[in-house]
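Reading a protein record of the kind used here takes little practice once its layout is understood. The fold follows as a row of integers, each naming the local backbone shape at the matching residue. With these conventions in mind, the following record can be read line by line:

_____
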Amino acid sequence: MYVGLCSLDIHIEHAQSLKAKRQVVKKLIDNIKNKFPVSVAEVDEQDLWQRAVIGIAVVSSSSTIIEGIFSKIEDFIENLHLCNVIDIKREIFTW
């Protein structure tokens, strides 16, 4: 069994308040959850207006499947045009 963790550091350029940021983050998380079989949450930078860190976790029988899911999620986020991805960190663990 493999466990994949992905951390996306994002910048929300047009957010001028925490409320505006939360709307974008919620929409992003909901879209990811609806399209991919993963767990998603905002995990850091909750007090900043234009930054957020989104954590994604997935369990699979293959590390290749996890890598594919993470790549598809990254492409999906870029195509939504809701935010800019600043940094991506991925880790896959064997259980």
Q: What stands out?
A: Strands lie at 2-11, 39-44, 51-60, 84-94. The longest strand covers residues 84-94.
